[in-house]
Fold this sequence. Notes:
disordered N terminus, 31% helix
Amino acid sequence: MKNEKTVDIYAKSGMMFKNACPSWRSAEKRKAMIKVGIIGATGYAGAELVRLLQGHREARIVWYGSRSYIDKKYSEVYRNMFRIVEDVCRDDDLAQLAREADVIFTATPQGFLAGLLTEEILSRTKVVDLSADYRIKDVAVYEKWYGIEHKSPQFIPEAVYGLCEINRGQITDQTRLVANPGCYTTCSILTAYPLVKEGLIDPDTLIIDAKSGTSGAGRGAKVQNLFCEVNENIKAYGVATHRHTPEIEEQLGYARGSRVTVSFTPHLVPMNRGILVTEYARLTPKPDGSLPTPEEIRAVYEKYYGNELFIRLLEEGVCPETRWVEGSNYVDINFVVDERTGRVVLMGALDNLVKGAAGQAVQNMNLLFGLPEDEGLKLAPCFP
Amino acid sequence: MKNEKTVDIYAKSGMMFKNACPSWRSAEKRKAMIKVGIIGATGYAGAELVRLLQGHREARIVWYGSRSYIDKKYSEVYRNMFRIVEDVCRDDDLAQLAREADVIFTATPQGFLAGLLTEEILSRTKVVDLSADYRIKDVAVYEKWYGIEHKSPQFIPEAVYGLCEINRGQITDQTRLVANPGCYTTCSILTAYPLVKEGLIDPDTLIIDAKSGTSGAGRGAKVQNLFCEVNENIKAYGVATHRHTPEIEEQLGYARGSRVTVSFTPHLVPMNRGILVTEYARLTPKPDGSLPTPEEIRAVYEKYYGNELFIRLLEEGVCPETRWVEGSNYVDINFVVDERTGRVVLMGALDNLVKGAAGQAVQNMNLLFGLPEDEGLKLAPCFP
Amino acid sequence: MKNEKTVDIYAKSGMMFKNACPSWRSAEKRKAMIKVGIIGATGYAGAELVRLLQGHREARIVWYGSRSYIDKKYSEVYRNMFRIVEDVCRDDDLAQLAREADVIFTATPQGFLAGLLTEEILSRTKVVDLSADYRIKDVAVYEKWYGIEHKSPQFIPEAVYGLCEINRGQITDQTRLVANPGCYTTCSILTAYPLVKEGLIDPDTLIIDAKSGTSGAGRGAKVQNLFCEVNENIKAYGVATHRHTPEIEEQLGYARGSRVTVSFTPHLVPMNRGILVTEYARLTPKPDGSLPTPEEIRAVYEKYYGNELFIRLLEEGVCPETRWVEGSNYVDINFVVDERTGRVVLMGALDNLVKGAAGQAVQNMNLLFGLPEDEGLKLAPCFP
Amino acid sequence: MKNEKTVDIYAKSGMMFKNACPSWRSAEKRKAMIKVGIIGATGYAGAELVRLLQGHREARIVWYGSRSYIDKKYSEVYRNMFRIVEDVCRDDDLAQLAREADVIFTATPQGFLAGLLTEEILSRTKVVDLSADYRIKDVAVYEKWYGIEHKSPQFIPEAVYGLCEINRGQITDQTRLVANPGCYTTCSILTAYPLVKEGLIDPDTLIIDAKSGTSGAGRGAKVQNLFCEVNENIKAYGVATHRHTPEIEEQLGYARGSRVTVSFTPHLVPMNRGILVTEYARLTPKPDGSLPTPEEIRAVYEKYYGNELFIRLLEEGVCPETRWVEGSNYVDINFVVDERTGRVVLMGALDNLVKGAAGQAVQNMNLLFGLPEDEGLKLAPCFP
């Protein structure tokens, strides 16, 4: 049913000027909108949340949290938002924010939220955590890979792992805490999930070679992320030790029904945005000893993703490329069967700041509040 | 009054899926929308038109013209549009297109439209020409700088130079032909216009040093535009001979009220999008011999651009940067008075594919059809 | 007055001016130098040969072959060579060139040399072929992967595969034809060779995920290699079908002593130069069931590469990066043992135009003429 | 057998391995070489000194000064130098260094050297200062533009401004202190010098629009120099206030014979290396009222630069590009006369780390020690 309110909502749509020109919305409308607080609004993922939420018709940002820039106008830090966002940055006061916001996005370093989260906060507001604090169910695994003590493990059980296409059913208006998946993780899992789930590949042979643009490294002032250090270079890092590994293993383990161990190697690429994963796995022979055919593999992907709005299974022979998803919430996926080796090569591409962070966070928010899942996310990829 | 039709329009807003999911719009709605044809839809400017029009609530593309890719699916050429645009590319049949479309965008090489345009076409449809064919009123100047004969000079007088912020009043539902300004030109003129108009600078001392991203060079397969030739390089080109020079001079001449001669030098920068102009001019002393103050200059800019949606006069001391306008229809402008030299340095930045091409073309279309000027253009700049 | 010392200084000069100022060398000296002809001198690999040979004290270029630029000054095509190279480009007359040159480098498309090579040519001059024509011993394999008929298979048996660090002993003054290895191949093989040779890994589990800068795609004018298409993008290509695969398999097969089948996936990275390979393989358990230790693996690398001038086994924990080898003939190699998965991750980096093409070709020339192997190749990597 | 010739070969070696393999040089040879100390060896300019001096046959580095990395191996900071440089970084002890080195290069922040330089140091060693401390003769101008007090103005008079092509005659074995010019400055001055000197242009109309790669911003960890902030962006900065302005004005003032005031605007370009200047000036009419012809302008350039090894006056119609000088000590220069405006457009390109910093510093060292000016600088530009 489209009632007066709905009409109003859509009437004020579009990508921007909403906050800049509050008069565009009636007082009642603004009152009715979801009030969003962002902690870490001046990091790259936080800034992408700000950008995406300009185009969201049911949410408005009430708190631009940034410890580094308290009292500074947000648009002085991100000048693309000049004349669009008029607010100033505020401190990271989670307790106060819980009183003012319907949902809080925490785009913060590991351990930050775990150190501050309380029952009272969760009783007042929903939290979508873009850090890793509640992604891993086994706290010992978290503490081992992250090298820090988890300060509030009591909330881990209730946290839903917000990989929407897989766990959509668990993210409802009853959910209080969503652990938004990592960028590498989202791409790695979605690319392999149907084949693991259906047993077409042997997950213990799974090798994930991932490549990321530099925005994934954050906006911290580090020599290693200077232009001249990244440009004209490619390197692997965190080999055999990257923290997204256990997250991938846990989720693929659920798909398989038993523990999975994978090789995961991230690489830094001289570009701003984008993640590409190239995954290798041995195909599971069928009872007659033959390997699954490309058609059978495609059918499995279609079974799981055929109706997904944000997953595009590409046409045969087309390799995913990060440029084709830039700025959007899409994941592009395809595969090649290599009969010579008995392996299948899976490929997936997404924008690490959108589907790999802020876009998926908004998608989770939409689920939490019963909105259309694509609200604020109908973004055509921008090329070149 | 918000009638049923308006509601419908807005209800289907957003950036995409419109063409992909035609069922989202009722048959009546689709019928009522402006039918758009694009000639040159697979060039970079044409592709940006396609992207922008996905988010336009009153227009739908009925013709994806591309001589190079006839009968090929558009989304096979621009794979970002996979699952968004289902159409195939069609030939450049301007006459037939005039029967099917309410407005035609020609994103074509110089001379193309001039060679095909007829009274019959203009009697059936409106044309927004992204080439230079109708930008220059003096056909001799056109022929000298472009080195080709103009095949239909009879249409030059009626063509309106579509620099919206300056010529908005001339672009109405009576207009048949809009000459969409060049990318360098838009940036160069808008940056200097108020100061020339008000006589604050001596236009004959105006020097425009312009820098452009590589998408401005088009999608033609040329060695000079290969990645390895452009990357890690900057160069000037077309020094003292670039074809945007007379276009700038003509328009600034109108502002001044007499002929203007400028130096214009374009440079190629290793980035995809963006134009930055740095302009130098001698300040005109006031009657008392003193120079205009920064406050006075700012006031003049405010007078002309204070209410402009797409022109952002930056805060004092902030230099325009292309990254802050990328993907949007904004022009960011600022200036520095250099008392030592008696000159003012003007700076302007825009996205060459948006405000410098497709965005401005859509802005012109909106004016032609009496729509809100920002329809389909409420785009927050995307960074990083 | 040119005294002994002055002469000496210039005679032993560094990187350039040699050809530009021939008078710097005495007539006798120039006469005694190796006369080099290059076919394909205006491709990227050919141009790198030109650059490197400027600094070679025993060789001078007598023929800049370039069918596309016949009679054009070489320095008009590669303006970095202005005032350094005065010669004009000449046609691809292999027969005439064989009379004028002591050695010919062919940096040409696949099939070119195979179509022209004759006994007479080889009786007059040595040939270092940078194409794939004589790399693969089994002509059927060549014809299958390259999709063309091999026109002179009779020369395949005598061709030496010029991977200097492995086959150095076979490249002597008696050798007439050297098949210079491919760029991906050189990096892939050298990175894995000692472990395959010594049986520390199971080569049939070997997965090579390779990333290359764009100069590897050549200087042909193709849309897919335009700046805007490559910049801000990463993609895989030639998945399961890339032609360097059989070359890698053949050479690693020799090391192992039996056939090897590998997965090889190349990727295109937005940078000019550099190849990085990330290789995954299962470690072969020792008789007691334990895996080889990092120390044992390192010892094997040291055994093979400890005295190699151009292979740098990095310190523990340091990952190879392309920036650290750019412009040089180095291959940087390292590895990480992943006990969780029982796999080892091998990494290798080189400059695709130097060690991956022209540098190795010069290294082969040095071996062919009994010169110090590093003559003309003592190049410190250039960063940033 | 190592005969005289073999020894000779290695003694005159090329780019590297010298320090890595000291045994390659005889003890006497090493003893006789110029002992070089570098303060600031781990900045980009310092690192380029290290790279260039690997190929210098008469100098060896005895002190790698780096306060940030004391006791750390140099090759752990710059891994391109792994196996080439074995030394560790040392503190900035200028007094001790003066006892150990024949010449000190200071690649340090402004004010550093001025605060430490003493008569005793200068009595023991020569100093080539890559900072601005002794470039400007008028200490008041220095203090105004740099905003710091000059701690040792007594040494300013004796400092020679080391723009070799102009001041070569003043740099002798008697010189103790060389002020190495700035990167923008070298390019800006050399491009305009002959025309100013000969009065062909009016220097007060000179406008210098300069573009620099990002290595010019140094290796400091600043947000503004992160990859994602610089990539896909161009901006002006320091408009009307950049510190290289008075340096340009002073030197061009000497050429003209009277004070000169110029507009100078630097821009940051997303590339590692390279500076391009585009300069605009009004041509001085000849007595008969006509303007200087291109031939006359070219003749003036030839008069001053015709015999210069490192200045390449390009052929007519060819614009300088930074890619053609990368990695070399060249400055490429050309000009276009614009009769329409009565102006000439001058263009110059160099590598900011070579001719704009370390290369020119080595050139100055060569002059100080009576060596061939191009020793260690015979570097062919590296492309792509």
